[in-house]
Specification:
Helix content is 18%, strand content 39%. By secondary structure, the protein is α+β, with helices and mostly antiparallel strands. The radius of gyration is 12 Å and the shape is globular.
């Protein structure tokens, strides 16, 4: 999958191993762009843990650069 294909996905997953956090961007709509949730590995096994809502980001085709800049996170490659 190339960068453009990844940027066009409705759900994008990023990872920052330094803090053991996974970020999930989920497409909302053209007006609101993507929601951003973070999932901390330390809390992943708690039954009521659904991650933390961080905010939204516009659908500008530049999510990879934004996630790298803001969160030091890189795309998770699907196998």
């Amino acid at each position: 999958m190339d960068i453009q294909e990844f940027e066009n996905k409705a759900v994008q997953t990023y990872r920052y191993d330094g803090d053991l956090i996974t970020y999930v961007l989920e497409y909302i709509d053209a007006e609101n762009g993507y929601s951003i949730r973070s999932y901390d590995d330390r809390f992943i096994n708690l039954s009521d843990y659904d991650g933390d809502f961080i905010g939204t980001t516009p659908d500008n085709g530049n999510n990879i650069a934004m996630m790298a800049w803001e969160y030091n996170a890189v795309p998770v490659r699907e196998i």
